[in-house]
Hints:
By secondary structure, the chain is an alpha/beta fold. The protein is built from 15 helices and 12 strands. The longest helix is centred in the last third of the chain and has 20 residues, at about 260-275. Pyridoxal-5'-phosphate binds near residues 115, 208 and 209.
Amino acid sequence: MAATANYRPETLAVRAGQERSQFGEHSEALYLTSSFVFESAAQAAKRFSGEEEGNVYARFSNPTVSMFEERLAALEGAEDCVATASGMSAIMATVLAHLKQGDHIVASNSLFGATVQLFNNILSRTGITTTFVSHTDPAAWEAAIRPETRLFFLETPSNPLTEIADISKLVAIAHAKGILVAVDNCFCTPILQKPLELGADLVIHSATKYIDGQGRVLGGAVCGPKKLTEEVFKYLRTAGPTLSAFNAWVLLKGLETLKLRVEAQAANAARLANWLEAHPRVARVFYPGLPSHPQHELAKAQQKNGGGIVSFEVKGGREQAWTVVDHCQLLSITANLGDVKTTITHPASTTHGRISPEARAAAGINEGLLRIAVGLEAVEDLQADLERGLSLI
Ligand SMILES: *Cc1c(COP(=O)(O)O)cnc(C)c1O
């Protein structure tokens, strides 16, 4: 599609990036091929050296993957996008492409659990160290900067408490010292939040979540200016965690309905959050779209709406929270999120179960907390499903 810059997101979502083959297919083609054939020895040499553009081997590029990359880049307003096998490999690739032994990361203390493990237990072995600081306190980020700090890493809203990090403020602090800012935009997607417009250097995705939206495949991506994504590409083509063509094809189709799904899921989440806040068995609701959220104003300025994730504390502790979970007949008991099917999880015994009870308490994740990733079912049906357990506690 030519000149994508002028189209609105709805149009980009279904049109951007498509390259038709000689057969004129209307739906994007799935190119299940690991290598590509050259017309001559001379052309092979030029393709390998990079003198001539074109596909060589699927670890480097594949036309279906390229279509997905171009469509996501268009939605994020990024010059370029590099797809990866998963969200975690997108984070790994970003760090290893831009940091080296001795470098330092300042990261939010409420990151996705596997990201914390990656920074603490795997990247630390390469001599890249991380300091975790308060998600919501820009002064703490500034105070943690060292001469060797190369990267600020954050995701917002946080999981599961939906705390908001002020992207523009953190960007200003980082850029004053020549530090890169990478934002994991998995929870909001470009439909609700555009970190690059707020000054971030790189946007990272777990495409596994909202971008697929139907819980089918793993995938990830890194979006940003070509001078930064090029380094990520060099790492990927050599180290290998590239996105498979089949998964790219599924995700490309997921992008077509991303805006419709994310907006409908957020509307459902807002209704559910309001209902929970008024519920006598609920102690507290965490949802950026509620005026009671401590950072409601910042959320309104930074995100289009409150998003699809609602957390809440039941009155009581683990027993009461588990009662709600165990009486769900409709909501799926799983930690996945971004799916059109609503999911419910008890963070203290699942996603945050490996953290010490003291650290969990310090992070505000108590035993009565439940997290719901709201899908597309009728809100009345979701309420009835939750009411079954809530009425028993
Ligand atoms: C799921 C998730 C990831 C990791 O993505 P995978 O595709 O599972 O590797 C990273 N960040 C956030 C915020 C996530 O929710």
